[in-house]
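Section: Multi-chain targets

For targets with more than one molecule, the full set of components is provided together so that the structure can be written out for the assembly as a whole rather than chain by chain. Components appear in the order listed by the source. The example entry contains two components.
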Amino acid sequence: MISLAGRDILHSWGKFVFTGFGLGLLIGVTLVMAGVYRGMVDDGKALLDNSGADLWVVQRDTLGPYAESSSISDDLYRTVLAMPGVAQAANVTYLTMQVRQGDNDVRAMVVGIIPGDAWGSPGWPPYLVDGRQITRGHYEAVADIAAGFRLGDEITIRRNRYRVVGLTRRMVSSSGDPMVFIPLKDAQEAQFLKDNEAILQNRRRTAANPAFNRPGQPDILDAVNASQANSTSVNAILVRLAPGSDAEAVAQSIRRWKRLTVHTRAEMEDILIGKLIATSSKQIGMFLAILSVVSAAIVAFIIYSLTMDKIREIAVLKLIGTRNRTIAGMILQQALALGAIGFAVGKITATFTAPYFPKYVLLLSQDAITGFMAVLAICALASLIAIRMALKVDPAEAIGG
Amino acid sequence: MTSEGIRIEGLRKRYGEGDTAVDALKHVDMEVAPGEVVGLIGPSGSGKSTLLKSLGAVIDPTAGRMTLGGTVIYDDGWKVTDLRALRRDKIGFVFQAPYLIPFLDVVDNVALLPMLAGHSNAESRERALDLLTALDVHHRAAAMPSQLSGGEQQRVAIARGLINRPPVILADEPTAPLDSERAMAVMRILHEMAKKYQTAIIIVTHDEKIIPTFKRIYHIRDGVTSEEAGEGRPIS
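Its structure, encoded as tokens over all components, is:
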């Protein structure tokens, strides 16, 4: 038996190809949307992987440092380092801001790390694609290449300028913003230091306070002003465990004795994926649902229209003895073929356009397979209306009168 | 007359019930022998289409008896369970317009029926080519219907009607869209095919050009048939 659907498609291939192209663009958008979600999840995992930490020690009762703000003393890392099972501990700050370069600025997550002898500490970029790590205590930066900076570029963060000495890759925040690493002290200043006007205002207020500005004791006022000008806070302490240590046991110990909140890797994944990007994923889920419904409606309309165009032929086919299942099969195969054409166009479109999206779009083969099955299922469902209509065609319509 | 063709006795068809009931066919008697071509003539609303649809097993008559190729197919109710197979295997259709499947080439338009009946593609196409040769359109076997002239399309439609060697062919105004020359050509083909394949052919027509070619004519008026002899004029 010849394939009636195949012959019809070959006969009116232009209609199918152009319709499939239109449907394919819609499917392409759907695949990219799924890729955006996957990219967000991957960004979150990359953030955790690249931090090199097993535990995140943050301000008590917070979900920091990525999902909520967290501020703890930069002295605490020493006591954390002394805890059993802890191999390394490092202070780190995170601040998402606009980093300027000349007249342009880039949204980036500025990460404060301890330079020099803390080489390889948690929080450091695990590898560089060019240049070197930060070795000086001030005014050097390592940037993710997605920021668009090059080696030797001078960038401005708040009031200070930094020289880009190294470039890294896939070091991004959970929002996909590229990271810029700078020395911890500079990062603390950038994050916690007030601007000059505010400092002057604070100094005037302190000087007006007789408790701090006692006659004959100017050192007190100087000491208070100095304490206000220096920041001793960090956002988190990243902990790397000694081999064989149990993450939950160490975390419990730190929670108990240091009265801090400690997140394990699993908890951080839950925070990042389950909480931080939960709203975005729901948003994307809604878009995917709407796009699926729109795709189904389009396929249903197209198949219905194509079937309506063939009402007389269907009546003739039924009159001459064609089985209902042959006619239903023809319509179903056409819907599936349309879906297959649309999926091929959509997949190609998504693959070629994904790199141009500002945020990371991760197209997984597993998603493509799921998407293909979903497209076929949607097309099959969408063809039911046309099939129902075709099966109701009276063969007597082929006979005039 | 032989009973191997088609015999209709007391066929009735009523649409609706009660006060709104309409008797489209009140009493139809017809008999067409194998190899015979008869005309069915009647004004609009006389019941021609209802009769054709009843014969074609696409509507249910109300009462009567129909015998096809020696087999009783209707006797106050269908005697065959698969009307689709009955239409496919026992009845050929030729319409006013050819209604060829536009996405199949000529040979597959004709070969489709045996394929539907379960014959292999190769065998079906071979049979179709034989028939197309007999109808002198074999040279257009690979063409699409849209590439054929009106006469060629009608010949292909006739081939499709004949391909399963049905004992009866129902032709609904097969020459209406054709000029005299082509109409006569189609009639000649139908007569030749009727003789060659011993098929009983009923042609519903208003076409004055072809009416004189019938040897027997059935008139239908207000759902009642009557038979008269035709001129049986030779087809030039």
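Residues 180-197 of chain B form the longest helix (18 residues).
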